[in-house]
């Protein structure tokens, strides 16, 4: 899992100029599955503190692009930078949140262990997300909604610079969906975290993101 990389501090001339740069920038990227090129020449910028939407029909390659931005899938072309720096040997602080959180969790770990591994406790976020769940349970003992709340909490506890949220609220009821996005947008505003909201739901993206792009 991507870990926290401290954001540049204000008050230093060099770093202040960095603050003005777009945070995550993909220039002309291509992604493939095997030999099949799915996307070619995609330009995408996720500025600091903003939510950008990515839409497209099922099978278009949204998940593959999201995973590539988090360096979980190789680029077949183009350039990816965070504050002007390409991925290096260190941790890449771009966190990918899976549509189906169960596949991204160790089934043998309790919730307590899963969250302890993510970072220092965040009781404020846990409460805001409604993720106060029994610590001794295992992931398969949770409902889909509880799992997604846990997954979002875990993702935020790693304090990523950018969060890639892949259809994370597709299976939630409208009230829970609105709550999750409100919390995520609050974190963006408060910490400068960038957010890529991947969804096939254009109405949702229009509500939560200032800017969206579609892939066909
Ligand atoms: N692990 C994989 N191996 C081979 N093909 C894959 C794999 N994952 C996805 N694909 C294929 O790549 C295409 C894009 O998938 P995906 O990125 O999941 O699209 P989306 O998220 O837009 O539905 C689809 O045709 C899908 O079947
Ligand atoms: Mg997908």
Automatic annotation (TrEMBL):
GO MF entries: ATP binding
Coiled-coil segments on the chain, per record: none
Signal peptide, first to last residue: none
Annotated keywords: ATP-binding, Nucleotide-binding, Transport
Record-annotated ABC transporter domain positions: 24-216
SUPFAM superfamilies reported in the protein's UniProt record: P-loop containing nucleoside triphosphate hydrolases (SSF52540)
Keyword Transport: yes
PANTHER family: ATPASE COMPONENT OF ABC-TYPE TRANSPORT SYSTEM, TRANSPORT ATP-BINDING PROTEIN
Protein name in the entry: ABC transporter ATP-binding protein
Organism, scientific name: Paracoccus nototheniae
The organism's taxonomic lineage, starting at the top: Bacteria, Pseudomonadati, Pseudomonadota, Alphaproteobacteria, Rhodobacterales
